[in-house]
Amino acid sequence: MVGLIGTATRFIIWFHRVRHNAEVFAPDVQRRTPGWAIGGWFIPFANLWIPRGIAQDVLRAGRPDPWAGELRHQRLLNSWWGLWIASNIFDRLAAQRYDAAEDPQAVHDAAGWLMTGSVLEIVAAVLALLFVRRLTADQNAKAMAGNPFPPEPQYPTAGGPVPGVGR
After folding, report:
1. Distance in angstroms (rounded) separating the CA atoms of residues 2 and 89
2. What's the helix, strand, coil split of the chain in %, to 5?
3. What SS3 state is found at 156?
4. How many other CB atoms are found less than 10 A from the CB of residue 103?
């Protein structure tokens, strides 16, 4: 449980940071404020689609051209998100079966369901890790490609020569 809480905390902090980065890269494609990158995870039922929408906007902002066609890594996002939701539902059903088991065969069957749920969670975690790595790499590449802020104009000091003006 400590590992889960620690990992979830670090993931949400990372998610909030990449959302802030997306604001710099392409603020006009962000549908929600950076605060939703944290709060969206804690709203029952809404946490099934709000964070995914934010992740999709952040993916778009990390592209060289945010308004171009199909998103890179969209299939990875959909696979991770779908498997994460499926594993949560499957875990709840498996836990109910385990709690209701009264004979050794029912306990055995329910334990099999719990192990299958664990495998789904592991696969979802691997996909989440791949998503984190690819989105982070995309944002890093975009940041290294150029300064998102225009350079400040250089003015000569008062009374000095004006560069580029012939004498």
Report:
1. 22
2. 70, 0, 30
3. coil
4. 8
Question: Hunting for tokens 């975009």 — which residue is that?
Answer: 142
In whole angstroms, give the CA distance from residue 98 to residue 133: 36
**Backbone phi, psi, residue 116, to 5°:** -60, -40
Q: Does residue 142 contact residue 62 with C-beta atoms inside 8 Å?
A: yes
Tokens of 6: 């620690």
User: Residue type at 6?
Assistant: G
Q: What is the pLDDT of residue 12?
A: 96
- Find the range with the poorest average confidence among 34-48, 53-67, 136-150: 136-150
The whole-angstrom separation of Cα 49 and Cα 81 is 9
Instruction: Please tell me the predicted confidence (pLDDT) of residue 149.
Output: 52
pLDDT (tens digit, 9 = 90+) per residue, 90-129?
999 999 999 999 999 999 999 999 999 999 999 999 999 9
| Average pLDDT value for residue range 77-92 | 94
Q: Classify residue 133 as exposed, middle or buried by CB count within 10 Å of its CB (0-12, 13-18, 19+).
A: exposed
pLDDT at residue 163 greater than cutoff 80: no
Phi, then psi, of 39 in degrees rounded to 5: -65, -30
List the end-to-end C-alpha distance of the chain, in Å, as a whole number. Answer: 75
